[in-house]
Amino acid sequence: MEDRACELGNYIVEHKATVRAVAKKFGVSKSSVHKDVTSRLYWIDRSLYEQVRTVLEENKRERHLRGGAATREKYRKLQEK
User: Fold this and answer.
1) Displacement of CA 81 from its chain's centroid (Å)
2) Is 44 in contact with 34 (CB distance < 8 Å)?
3) Is 0.85 surpassed by the pTM of this model?
């Protein structure tokens, strides 16, 4: 489990990935990813934990923008049909 937490954390930092994207990539649930990188990683590798936390906070600040863009794209595609 410690190896997985570090692997997930490194992937998030390297790719600026969301929890959902990481879960899909590694084939685990979003809740498992979140638990690994927020709780377990804190005790395993504090510096990696801080880097992951920074990326996750940035993603949280931007999620409303991504949601709006996804909705625009959805309706744009519907208009083309």
Assistant:
1) 32
2) no
3) no
